[in-house]
Description:
Glutathione S-transferase Yfyf (Class Pi), Chain A, domain 2, five-stranded antiparallel β-sheet, Glutaredoxin, 2 domains, binds glutathione, about 220 residues
Amino acid sequence: MFLAEKGLDIARVEVDLRGGEHLAAAFRTINPYCTVPVLELDDGTLLCSTAAIWRYLEETHPEPPLMGRTAVETARIADTHWHIKSEGISAIAKWPRNAAPRMRDRALCGPSVYAQTAQLAERDRRRAEAFLKSPESLAESADPFLCGECFSVADIDALIAVDFAHQLHLELPADAMRACSRYELLASRPSASACRENGDPSQSELADAGSQRSWRG
Length: 217
Ligand SMILES: N[C@@H](CCC(=O)N[C@@H](CS)C(=O)NCC(=O)O)C(=O)O
């Protein structure tokens, strides 16, 4: 969605997460943390976190800005984004990792084996539900976007959090009418459709912009 908002046309190569390709020796030479996305720059630099990839692309392709124009706007977006990541996406992603049979011994991303813990699954399910009822999920302000007039990375991750929760059969509270209409607005953006058309979310992809490549989920 970030790439589509920037208008970047990046070809992709899939990494089979379900098949464990990200844990194999060949992928470990690309990213020893065994996660996607990864962006490879023209000079061979490998960026192995969404935060680094977004920051790099924002600096090299500033229009449209997705991480803020002014100091205050940038800080406000970073603040909201941090809450969405740490309270929303973290809980919504960790819950199934500690509960789903196919995530057995994969309770955390990365090369190490971590057994599932039922109590953590229950805790994170409750955190996920609390997040969806919180102002940070899709804030109830009159602004068109989460951090004001401009669409930002905070909106991208809010949309991802709600979509992910929906897949887990968690919904926004029925009385969150403004949040629901904001969600519809975000979900109807062309970049959201472009993102959903990327195919099986269990697959990841190698992208190529010029000679840049990126692996993503
Ligand atoms: N630190 C990375 C983590 C991203 C992440 O959690 N990626 C997931 C797919 S969406 C992954 O690579 N999972 C590997 C696994 O399940 O072992 C980032 O923020 O970019």
